[in-house]
Amino acid sequence: MSDQIVTRFAPSPTGFLHIGGARTALFNWLYARGRGGKFLLRIEDTDRARSTPEATQAIIDGMTWLGLDHDGEIVSQFDRADRHREVALEMLEKGQAYKCFSTQEEIEAFREAARAEKRSTLFQSPWRDADPATHPDAPYVIRLKTPLDGQTVIDDQVQGPVKIRNDQLDDMILLRSDGTPVYMLAVVVDDHDMGVNTVIRGDDHLNNAARQMGIYTAMGWPLPTYAHIPLIHGPDGKKLSKRHGALGVEEYRDMGYPAAGVRNYLARLGWSHGDDEFFTDAQAMEWFGFDGMNKAPARFDFKKLANICGQHIAAAEDAALLQELQGFLAATGAEPLTEQKIYLLEQAMPFLKERAKTFPELLEKAHFCLAERPLEIEEKAAKNLDAVSIGILTELTPHLQSASWTRQDLEGILTVFAEDREMKFGQLAAPLRAALAGRTATPSVYDMMLVLGQEETVLRLQDASKGAD
């Protein structure tokens, strides 16, 4: 068997890629990528009634946005049903499985009797060791022969050794009476055939591992390394659900969180590397391992998510940030940026990205260079454009028309202008903000003037002066 680590993400396409699934995908991706391994994607679409092409696409889109690239082709579990059947029949041939002709009514009668006698309701099929000569010509399922005594030990990398008595495990159905394979069989066959040797998934699958190990053992296949990770809970400590707000990865994208920030935050849900909160993908790949995993459920915290995302926006390369910003606008159906607005944003990005936690916040700070003349002045900002303030701007404008348009020159002009009139700088800055951006909360007036340029700045001041006429 290859020493190369092979992990997989195997979602069911019955809806969007929820945040818990995204974190499972991320952990598998980090573990494989950090060790030069492979990260595979399998769509578990055996439930034909609930699986949809739209949901499959939503999962792929969510992973693409998160930047979780996979190796090789996407595998469809449904397409491999013949192979799953083949393995069940091989186990039957080897005596590791058997045909069970018990009807639903007989199974229910067995359980009722067991309840009445206060013994285990785990179904014990009378056909387990029956002579094939006694088999009736009737529908049957194929069941796995689970050992009757001893125990199954899951040597889990997160939970530690988990022991389950074999008399607590039933003879699991492998093939239904219509010949279709069950999910539990399909998972094992697919993982084996795809070379998956490391299974990282939610700890709600822990009991499944004991039953799936029975198939590996029956087939003489090597067991994968199991790591069952804690689930994500909401801030109230209950399992994350719709009542906690956004669930699908695309909702976080549409709220304007940067993908790098979401990756960083999700990695910290249930795993840690010392006290490190903010880290890059390269650091996460280098550090990620089972030794930093917690057993207890992680709590989702929107404030922490926003804080981490703000740090990633501030640390990002301007060009990469601009590209992701345009992706955000496209995903939310907003108008694409014109070449002129892209140019202005490029000039403004170094100071815009400071303290913006999401793309909507960044766009709000960029309002001054995205808005077009004549500006719509917010009510609060309009109060800073009274007759006195307009008089000040009208007087200031000629000084700016003759300026050399460097920060040093602009600072000198505004400082001297304010001092000559015995004004505090804030008294000058407030009407300037209103005239240049139509807002009260803006980047510094110098930053805005330098990005807008001399001509646009003067025109906006003139517009504000006219507005008071």
Description of the structure:
- The chain is mostly helical and 469 residues long.
- It has 4 domains: 6-76 and 232-302, Rossmann fold (3-Layer(aba) Sandwich); 79-229, 3-Layer(aba) Sandwich (Rossmann fold); 316-365; 379-467, Arc Repressor Mutant, subunit A (Orthogonal Bundle).
- It has 19 helices and 12 strands.
- The protein has helices spanning 19-33, 53-66, 81-93, 104-116, 183-193, 206-219, 249-254, 259-267, 281-287, 302-315, 318-331, 339-352, 359-365, 367-370, 379-382, 387-401, 407-420, 425-437, 445-467, and strands at 6-9, 38-43, 75-76, 97-100, 141-144, 151-156, 160-165, 173-175, 198-202, 225-229, 232-233, 298-299.
- Helix 16 packs across helix 19.
- The radius of gyration is 32 Å and the shape is elongated.
Helix/strand layout:
Elements: E1 6-9, H1 19-33, E2 38-43, H2 53-66, E3 75-76, H3 81-93, E4 97-100, H4 104-116, E5 141-144, E6 151-156, E7 160-165, E8 173-175, H5 183-193, E9 198-202, H6 206-219, E10 225-229, E11 232-233, H7 249-254, H8 259-267, H9 281-287, E12 298-299, H10 302-315, H11 318-331, H12 339-352, H13 359-365, H14 367-370, H15 379-382, H16 387-401, H17 407-420, H18 425-437, H19 445-467
Helix pairs in contact: 1-9, 3-5, 5-6, 8-10, 11-12, 12-19, 16-18, 16-19, 18-19
EC number: 6.1.1.17
Function: Catalyzes the attachment of glutamate to tRNA(Glu) in a two-step reaction: glutamate is first activated by ATP to form Glu-AMP and then transferred to the acceptor end of tRNA(Glu).
Motif ('HIGH' region): 11-21
